[in-house]
Design goal:
Helices cover about 5% and strands about 35% of the residues. By secondary structure, the protein is mainly beta. The chain has one domain: Pectate Lyase C-like. It has a 14-stranded parallel beta sheet with strand order 1-2-5-8-11-14-17-20-23-26-29-32-35-38, with no helix packed on it. A 14-stranded mixed beta sheet has the order 4-7-10-13-16-19-22-25-28-31-34-37-40-41. A 13-stranded parallel beta sheet has the order 3-6-9-12-15-18-21-24-27-30-33-36-39. Helix 2 (about 50-55) links the parallel strand 1 and strand 2. The protein is elongated and about 85 Å long. The termini are far apart.
Length: about 550
């Protein structure tokens, strides 16, 4: 009777209630939309919540998802704390839905904070700060202050843009080296921040009992640019692109750092770099580009760096150009033996040290830098007005350093500057090409040499037993044809701005066979050409040694 009455009246029955299904991970899904209502259940796009404040009241369980409407703006902060998430197999996911990316606009706070938990995925969002956030807060912060050295597993950040904060993304470890493990940050744009685009840090390093807050950190296809620094911060470095500190086993690849550090303090004792690491071990920087990075002071401002307390690490297949400071800086300011067993190979530097001639294309100096291998690199430095940096600079306390099979070219003196007249047991140069079209000059301690033969005979450098090594012939460096699409990071080495030798026959026989010396030359050269034997000089292979 009721059904007949309803039909006669032209009405419809109310839709039966269907409980929201679990998502594919077995968790709940919540939605945010500017048109939503915080009094709804938030479980569907039609019953979405309106504010981050409402979402912040939820205890996120493993497998849960929070989805922000694409293209919409959401003021406030999202916090995921201890007791939330926690599962690597069923992570909590924060992402956008619909068209475009949702935008979190932080007002004097962090944008997203993950504290003492992990098993979290943050993807396809924009996080933007205001002036107060720029001075004091992180855009996305992963923080552990747990007691002990526990590593919280599984962190993923991808497809995000972070701008307008003190640091774009930060991994922060605890006083006892608690931190995060299995971290992947990929396909992100980090720009317009103050101190750095991306930073990882932990407790002060103790060489007697080394401990690292974070393990297995991967940074891939990240662009960090116009993170300009703080002109008031004279007691810390600011204005870097990517900085990884307190990391055990890290990888930065296919990433770009440019135009950072422009406003860093003119009085700072430490300056910014494009991509660098400190207090870390087993780090690899490969297939990255760093260009047009700056410093406000008279220190740093370079492309890449292995700084204090870095060990068992490699910089390879990278491109550096047009930076204020060194292309590749290997440096230690602490008198311990923690800076050891590092390799710089198959990199290209050109027109670096544009502001600071006390650096150079490749620079190694500091307290007790030991067991450093520098080989198969190509370096071109040219004067910038009165600034005349060398291609290679060596300073202070170096031990067991080898420099082999590199191409060093300048447009005038000096080619190489060594503060000390190092014994070959401390610093050994073999199989390098040293070329300058005007005024060949090499400074070795207090003496200056105007010819390769004279320097070789006086010092024993560039020899292997009775055999003379090295050359001063012109490699005819020429730029690789450029793509208009910017640096190509999909191959082994970026092509845009790279240099290759054109006069290869005259360099044949100049290099030393690395395999004979017990050095693994690697599988490929800068451009991914397979190596059938020990290569000739420089980052780009032109043929085997004689």
């Amino acid at each position: 009777m009721c059904a007949a009455a309803v039909l006669l009246a032209g009405c419809s029955m109310p839709t039966p209630y269907v409980p929201p299904r679990e998502n594919p991970q077995g968790g709940r899904t919540f939605y945010l939309s500017p048109g939503g209502d915080d009094s709804d259940d938030g479980r569907t796009p039609q019953t979405a919540w309106r504010t981050l404040r409402r979402a912040d009241t939820v205890r996120f369980e493993p497998g849960d998802r929070l989805r922000l409407k694409g293209g919409a703006r959401f003021p406030g902060t999202l916090s995921i704390g201890q007791g939330d998430a926690g599962s690597a197999r069923k992570p909590v996911v924060v992402e956008s839905y619909g068209t475009g990316r949702g935008v979190i606009t932080a007002r004097g706070t962090r944008g997203i904070e993950v504290h003492n938990t992990s098993g979290v995925v943050i993807r396809d969002l924009v996080v933007a700060g205001d002036p107060a956030a720029y001075r004091s807060h992180e855009g996305i912060a992963f923080t552990s202050d747990l007691p002990g050295s526990r590593k919280l597993p599984y962190v993923r950040v991808s497809g995000v843009e972070v701008r307008g904060f003190r640091n774009g993304i930060r991994l922060h470890g605890g006083a006892d080296a608690s931190g995060f493990r299995d971290v992947v940050i990929r396909d992100c744009a980090l720009h317009g921040n103050q101190d750095a685009g991306l930073v990882a840090d932990g407790p002060a390093f103790d060489s007697a009992a080394p401990a690292w807050a974070h393990e297995r950190v991967t940074v891939s296809r990240v662009t960090a640019y116009k993170n300009v620094g703080d002109p008031r911060a004279s007691r810390r470095n600011t204005g870097s692109g990517i900085v990884l500190g307190s990391v055990r086993q890290g990888l930065v690849e296919q990433s770009v750092a440019h135009d950072n550090g422009r406003l860093s303090s003119p009085d700072a004792a430490e300056g910014p770099e494009g991509i660098w690491t400190y207090d870390s071990t087993r780090m690899t920087f490969q297939r990255n580009v760093a260009y047009a990075n700056h410093t406000g002071s008279e220190v740093d401002g370079g492309g890449f760096g292995l700084d204090n307390n870095v060990s068992h690490s490699v910089m390879q297949y990278n491109l550096s150009y047009g930076n204020d400071g060194a292309g590749y800086l290997i440096y230690s300011a602490v008198p311990n033996r923690a800076h050891t067993d590092n390799t710089v190979r198959y990199n290209i530097s050109h027109d670096d040290s544009r502001k600071l001639q006390d650096y150079g294309g490749i620079v190694a100096f500091g307290s007790r830098v030991t067991d450093l291998d520098i080989y198969q690199n190509t370096v071109l430095t040219r004067a910038n007005g009165p600034v005349r940096p060398p291609a290679l600079r060596l300073l202070s306390s170096l031990g067991a350093v080898t420099v082999r099979n590199n191409v060093f070219v300048t447009d005038g003196p000096p080619l190489v500057v060594s503060q000390n007249a190092f014994a070959s047991s401390d610093v050994l140069l073999q199989g390098n090409d040293y070329h300058s079209p005007r005024g060949w000059n090499l400074q070795w301690g207090e003496l200056s040499y105007t010819g390769l033969d004279a320097w070789r005979q006086a010092t024993g450098q560039e020899t292997l037993g009775p055999r003379p090594l090295g050359t001063d012939r012109d490699p005819c460096l020429a730029p690789v044809p450029l793509s208009t699409a910017g640096p190509n990071l999909n191959g082994t080495g970026p092509t845009r701005g790279a240099l290759a030798a054109q006069c290869t026959p005259v360099l044949t026989g100049a290099a030393v066979d690395l395999r004979v010396l017990g050095v693994d030359p690697g599988p490929v050269d800068y451009f991914g050409t397979p190596l059938s034997g020990s290569p000739g000089v420089g980052a780009v292979q032109f043929g085997p040694t004689a």
